[in-house]
């Protein structure tokens, strides 16, 4: 496979996977902040800075749990975007097999 095409497909996969990961992480942080605010109401006055700090400390554990989901959604999104732009059709018409085409996504 040409190195330029390999880098292009790899970059498209990486960007869609990172976009899905950032979207899921943002949603998790917002939901966790609301949950911590609800729990903090039971204990009296807790500062917003403390709740934001607790949310940031809990975010990596939750993000790790969603990583397989975000990779799956990102890969599906990358294939969808490549298909909509007819790039998959062009690559297949040039004689490249499907296994060569999905190799950058597997890495």
Give a brief description:
This protein is an all-alpha fold and 107 residues long.
Pick out its properties.
single chain; 107 residues; mainly alpha; 4 helices
What does it look like?
The chain is mainly alpha-helical. The protein has helices spanning 3-40, 48-84, 87-93, 98-106. The mean pLDDT is 89.
Q: What series of H and E elements makes up the topology?
A: HHHH
SS element count, helices = 4
Q: What is the CA-CA span between the terminal residues?
A: 14 Å
Class inferred from helices and paired strands: mainly alpha
Count the E strands.
Answer: 0
Taking the sheet with the most strands, its summary is: none
Into which percent range does the helicity of residues fall? over 70%
Tell me, what's the shape?
rod-shaped
Q: Spans with pLDDT under 50 lasting ≥5 residues?
A: none
Overall pLDDT: 89
Tell me what portion of residues adopts beta-strand conformation. under 5%
Q: Using only CA atoms, what is the Rg?
A: 20 Å
Task: Show the helix and strand layout.
Blueprint: H1 3-40, H2 48-84, H3 87-93, H4 98-106
Helix pairs in contact: 1-2, 1-4
């Amino acid at each position: 496979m040409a190195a330029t095409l390999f880098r292009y497909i790899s970059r498209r996969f990486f960007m869609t996977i990172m976009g899905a990961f950032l979207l899921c992480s943002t949603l998790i942080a917002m939901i966790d902040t609301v949950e911590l605010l609800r729990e903090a109401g039971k204990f009296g006055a807790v500062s917003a800075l403390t709740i934001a700090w607790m949310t940031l400390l809990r975010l990596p554990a939750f993000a790790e749990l969603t990583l397989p989901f975000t990779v799956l959604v990102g890969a599906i999104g990358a294939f969808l975007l490549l298909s909509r732009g007819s790039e998959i059709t062009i690559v297949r018409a040039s004689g490249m097999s499907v296994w060569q085409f999905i190799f950058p996504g597997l890495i």
